[in-house]
Structure formats: C-alpha cells, structure tokens
Write a sequence for this structure.
C-alpha cells in the first residue's frame, strides 16, 4: 500500500465515523474512496463494513446518557436489526449489487420526507395512539428489520432511514432518537462485519486504517451531535441525506 493511500483511508474513516454518529451515510465517504484507490467493489464493501463497525460502537457509547431507561426496548429493536443484517449479508454474497441498490435512492428520499414532517406527524401519532407512539409496536420492528436488511447489504445512509422511521413512530426527543439510531446501526455493522470477516474477501490493512479513523470520528461525532439543537440536527440530516442520494445517482 502506498503511504498516501493509508493517509487518505484514515481521513475517510474519521469523517465517516463522525457523520455516522451524527446521522449516518458515512459509507458514502469511504466506499467511493476505496473504489477510487483501486479496490474491487466487493472487497471495498466488506472491508468498509468491518472497518467502520468500531466507530459506530464508540458513537453509540457516546449517546449512553440519552438512552437511559430504554434497555428492554433497545433489545427488541436491536434483535430486529440483527435479523435484518443477517439477511442483508446473504443478499450481498448471493445476489448482484444492482438488483438491490437501484431502489436505495428512493428509500433515502422517502426517509428525508419523513424527517421533514416528523415533528407534526409524531405529535399526531402520540395523540392518536399514545401506546404505539411510546414503543413503536410491530410496525416499527418491521421497518427496523427492513433497514437492517439494507444495512447488511450496503449500509450507506441507513442512519437517515432509521431517523426517518424512528421519528414518525416514536414520541421521543430527537437526540434520544439519534442515540437509538446509533445503537441499531452499530448492531447491523458489527454483525455484518463479523460475517464478512469469515466468508467474504477483505483487506485487513484497509480495515485497520478505517477502524483507526472511525473510532476517533465516532467519539468526535458523539460530542458534536449531542450538542446540536433539534432544528440544526434535523437540518444536518436533510443535507447529508440529500448528498447521499446525489452521490448514489452519480455512481
């Protein structure tokens, strides 16, 4: 590996770890970077998933104060995410990428719309059915599972999708939703990364460099994200999500 390639990968990992913690879509930084440096698509995808997993974990830990009292609910949500991630890894290893990736931009646009209307819709849901709004019910678990499938397959912008769905179906402050999002995204990334480490082509040098940057980025992202007011955080989600759509359409 050329020395400046290593520097580029660490910087990309740091930036991805930071924005993954704040909202998601860090893969849209690292995946194109690895492709530009000459790594095969599948190797880039699997190495990226493993390398960014530690950063998503540090990001989730950074939001631990916002997650107090949610242990039982997080276990349910994380179980759905893990099951979805398992299905997603099977899709990546067994199906052509284009078969699934063609619908991704549309999913992200839907998520951005959900984030935009989230405040009004969340109040409507809470007034109409407080019990459902408090825990999300089976519908939330279903969507979390589907996003887990997507995250296990490619992972880019899964945080945007999660924030859209969580904002509609849970009556919680935006910062708490972001903490839940980080736990679920880290669940998907760790499980998918573990599978890829054993059954898929990976580059361990790339993984180590990405992890180094992502861990630092995750800690920085947690500090930044937890201090942002809800309006600003929602704006960041919209901007990054829109950039994710543009990036995918231009690939």
């Amino acid at each position: 590996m050329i020395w400046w390639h290593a520097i580029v990968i660490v910087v990309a990992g740091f930036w991805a770890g930071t924005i993954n913690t704040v909202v998601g879509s860090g893969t849209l930084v690292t995946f194109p970077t690895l492709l530009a440096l000459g790594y095969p698509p599948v190797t880039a995808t699997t190495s990226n998933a493993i390398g960014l997993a530690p950063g998503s974990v540090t990001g989730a830990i950074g939001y631990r104060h916002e997650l107090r009292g949610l242990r039982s609910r997080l276990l349910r949500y994380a179980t759905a995410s893990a099951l979805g991630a398992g299905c997603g890894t099977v899709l990546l290893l067994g199906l052509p990428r284009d078969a699934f990736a063609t619908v991704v931009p549309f999913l992200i646009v839907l998520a951005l719309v959900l984030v935009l209307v989230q405040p009004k819709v969340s109040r409507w849901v809470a007034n109409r059915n407080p019990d459902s709004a408090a825990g999300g019910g089976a519908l939330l678990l279903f969507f979390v599972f589907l996003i887990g499938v997507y995250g296990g397959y490619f992972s880019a912008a899964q945080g945007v999708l999660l924030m859209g769905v969580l904002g509609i179906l849970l009556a919680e402050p935006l910062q708490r939703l972001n903490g839940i999002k980080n736990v679920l995204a880290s669940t998907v990334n760790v499980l998918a990364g573990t599978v890829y480490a054993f059954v898929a082509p990976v580059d361990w040098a790339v993984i180590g460099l990405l992890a180094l940057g992502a861990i630092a980025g995750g800690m920085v992202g947690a500090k930044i994200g937890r201090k942002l007011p809800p309006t600003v955080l929602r704006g960041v989600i919209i901007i990054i999500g829109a950039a994710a759509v543009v990036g995918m359409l231009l690939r």
User: Anything to note?
Assistant: Residues 133 and 227 are 25 Å apart (CA to CA). The two ends are 25 Å apart (CA to CA).
